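Lab meeting notes turned into a lecture example. A postdoc, R.K., suggested we walk through two folding results consecutively so the class can see how the record format repeats. The first protein's sequence and structure tokens come next.
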Amino acid sequence: GGTVKLKIRAGTQPGTMVRLAGRGIPRLHGFGKGDQYVRLRVKIPTRLSHSQKVAVRQALGE
């Protein structure tokens, strides 16, 4: 258990699978833990301030 901080690379798409080596459940009859896989979900805000809208447009090159 616990919290893990991930660094997500720029351009990573929603639905991407990320492997957390050694962060899974303990291995059956073995040593250590397996890997945990995380699927990234991106939630797009529905309300943005004017300055946030400007920042998004700049980021998209509009």
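The second example is placed directly after the first for contrast:
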Amino acid sequence: MMYFSDKDFRKEDFITSVLDTGEYENCHFYHCDFSNQSFSDCKFIDCVFSNCNLSLVNFTNTALQNVQFIDSKLSGIQFDTCNPFALSVSFKKCIIQHATFFQLKLSKTLFEQSDLTGTDFTAADLTAANFDQCNLAQVIFERTILDQANFTTAYHFLIDPVANSLK
């Protein structure tokens, strides 16, 4: 497995080339297009994706540890296929439409100024998650742990208090 550290990737088109399977630590990806690519078995630690298109990327067994997504498109991603060990992500000004976070532990995750239309959080643990200024239209919350989650500035959401934990 290849190892990359402290590397910047700028305006790279991974539609025609493939991101090497490997470990990426403290790497920054700016204006890269990864749509429909595979991150399977990759490990991202302390990485930032800014202004990237990650729509329909395959995250099977991908480790995401302290990864920030900023101004990026992440539509249709099945995050529930990620490696759950030490999973830690944050999203700012992202489009995360029709993604799946089924059964993931996402305590204290920050979703800021993002569009999560149609995203599925079934059976996820979102304890103390913050949905700051997020569009939650058609988001699925079912058997979801939402204890201390902050929806103060979120909008278009519907949460069944009987089908979810809301302490």
